Amino acid sequence: MKNGKFKLMFKYRRKISFQKLDTEFVQIAKKIEELKLPKDFLQFILFTISELFTNVKEHSKAKEVTFQIGVNKNCLIKVTDNGVGLRKSYLSKKIFPKDDVAAIEFALSGLSTKDPAERGFGLYTIRKFTEALRGETKIGTGSALAIIGKDKIQLKKLSPRKKGVSVEVKTKIKNINFYKIIK
Question: pLDDT for 97-118, tens place per residue?
Fold first, then answer.
C-alpha cells in the first residue's frame, strides 16, 4: 500500500464449466492469498467467492459460470451463471415466491432452497459484509435486479428476462473485523 492506495494487484476473468468450480476456486484462492491485503479483508474475498461458487453448485443447475475479480484500490467480484435462476430454484423446492423480486428478497433474508427448514446465509452474509464495507452488491435474476448499498435496497424490474443469476460485489479495500461482522 502506498499513500493509502493499492496498485493494481490482481485481475482475473474466466468462463468455468460447472464441473471445474472446486478446482478453479483452489487456484484462484492461492493467487489471492499472495496479495498484500488486510488479513480479514482477504477472508471476506475468499468467503464471498466460496459462497457464490457453492450457490451455483447447489442451486443453479448451470452448465457454465463466468467469474471475474479485480483487486486494486477497490475490489470487484462478479459471478454469473446460466442456470435456472432464483425463482425456479425456490419453486423446485415447493417454495413459492410470487416473482423474481420476491425470490431475491427470500435469498437476501437467508431462506435456503436446500430444505425449507434450513437457513442459507451465503447471500445474506455477503450483503452484511458489503454493507459494513460501505460497498454495493447487485443481484440479477430473471426480470429482477436488486442493488444493495449501505442502508438501502433498490429493486427493479428488468426487460428482457435474464437467464441464471448474476451477483456482483464492489467495495473499497479496508481493514475489517471479519468475525465481528458475521456474528
Answer: 999 999 999 998 888 766 555 5
The pLDDT value given to residue 1: 41
Closest CA to 125 of 40, 174, 175, 52: 52
Distance of alpha carbon 24 from the chain centroid? 16
Reduced DSSP (H G I as helix, E B as strand, rest coil) percent helix, strand, coil of the chain, to 5: 40, 35, 25
Please name each of the domains of the chain with its CATH number: 10-182 (3.30.565.10)
- How many Å apart are CA 153 and CA 51, to the nearest integer? 21
124 — pLDDT class (breaks 50, 70, 90): confident
For residue 124, what is its C-alpha cell? Answer: 445474506
Asked whether 49 and 33 are in contact (CB, 8 A), the reply is no
